[in-house]
Amino acid sequence: MTLLQFRDLSVDYTSNDGMVPAVRGVTLGVEAGETLGIAGESGCGKTTLASTVLRLLPDTAQVRGEVLLDDVDILTMKWGRLRAVRWSQAAIVFQGALHALNPVQRIGDQIAEPIRLHQSVAEKQINSRVDELLTQVGLPASRAKSYPHQLSGGQRQRVMIAMALACKPALIIADEPTTALDVMVQAQVLDLLTGLVRDLGTGPAGGMGMILISHDLGVLGTTCDRIAVMYAGQVIESGPALEIFDNPKHPYTRALAAAFPRIGDPAARYAPTGLPGDPPFPGDLPTGCAFHPRCPIAVPACKLSAPALVEVAPSRMAACFEVES
Amino acid sequence: MGSKVLRAFITLAFVVMFNFFLFRMLPGDPIGLYARGRNQDPEQLVELRRALNKPLLEQFITYLRNPFDSTIDSTRFSRPVWEMIGERVWPTLLLLGTAILLASLIGIWIGIRAGWKPGGRFDRMSTGTTLILYSMPEFWLGMMLLIVFSVGAFGIPGMFPVGGISSPGVDTSGPMGWLNVLWHLVLPCTTLVLIYLADYALVMRASLIDERKQEYLTLARAKGLRDTMVRKRHAVPNALLPTVTLIFLSLGFVVTGAITVETVFSWPGLGLLTYEALRGPDIPLLQAIFLMFSIAVIVANLIAELLYVVFDPRVRS
Asked: What is this structure's pTM?
């Protein structure tokens, strides 16, 4: 069953220079129990795309298309209905837990807040539920009385995970959940998150779905079922995670995979290859394929028209003329 | 916490010393002032002059031994200065206490409404009004209110008394007396409220606008909280921190602001007493009043710092 479906979704931000497109015609789906990875450089529209799921974009954003959560369009929902859906059906693990947590509230109260809001539970049970959640993410229950600044970065991110799981949502959106952490803690937190999503999400409607956003293709390759790679607001490649990681088709995905040397691969370690140039400014995109100015295999046709996302192998999609032919 | 109290005491010690030299530098002849309108024979004056012409260091040591000496008399009123201050403290506390309480409540309310939707209709109206009020001198606004509401102008009858704390001959110990005091309180209190609420509203607005950009508000919205709950539970408690501190910090300056308003409305408090002492200049009285004001500022600062520790868990640890 399809849990979440983006249908031809576009987001434009109004700015002083006119309309700036952040997401351009994205169609993507997440099945129940599936983890979808979204990869791409900063500014490619990953976070904007994820924010449309709970309609958290600022007023300057104009959203077109459909975001179907359990076959209901989020974008046309009434405010009251939307508030009921927020957190109880889809919850977010934010990137920087230090800024995402309220600095003057105890973390126990912050975890309990959505439970009080969405579920009719007795006050006594709320406390034991908070303790249970904290234990699940590997923190002592006594931490409920702490303030965010008293915890380490990894502990705060664990609190964010506990909070996201509080109402047992069908979908978890993790927006670069480990970027702010050091490498050892990154691995721990990521294992915890994926493990909990796998174990907890076994309801009648199927497992818990997750969208994991990262710029690190290696991380996504090992933790996700499927990956979608975004460039300049569009999905340019998608398919099963390990296949994309091992055998990227699109030249951009290849560059992204080469940018993170694989552990145990000396050749990649001694010659990590970056991608020359910067991602294009969304307000001033190149003609044709947005990637052609940085593309090592670009042909004259790339300047003239943009390739469509088409099936290039079983369950593999890519948007590139050179891959098609 | 201990270091904050210690710092307050060090400041106090410095103020006590500075206070002594400040008034030794003021122009004016204390003996002349003392002798004005009194039958003093020249020998007595010479004797007085000799007593007051002791070396500065000796005077300083005498002063330091007891800066709050209750036997020191005012040169103009020939009464112990601390006794006079003790009498005048209560009207000032009544006036300032009421004004600050009302100004902070109204100011914070305006600041929250304006800062939550910056650029909106309420914000544009209230910010315009508060900026105009903020830039008005207190005494001028006081005089205008006096002209309009107590003398009567533009067809508005004079409804309020021109000055004082109660009508002559009214016994202020009973309920009718309290009403009479309240009636006298309206205009000076309104003047101060209008001036100070502008300050508090602008600060509250600015700090709420800062909080609005914080990511924890996006999280609160993502949790499914109503906009009003996001504001009340998350944004306002954080935005109040700097505002409450500022209100306490401003208390010290409010005391000095009362000088002009009390003078305009002949309110018999410390402000009016300062004005009367300045006209002399009545140096012993001024010295005591300045000491009193300085202590008020230091205590207000200390309370502000300690309150921040109570309200903000980040400062606590």
From this structure: 0.80
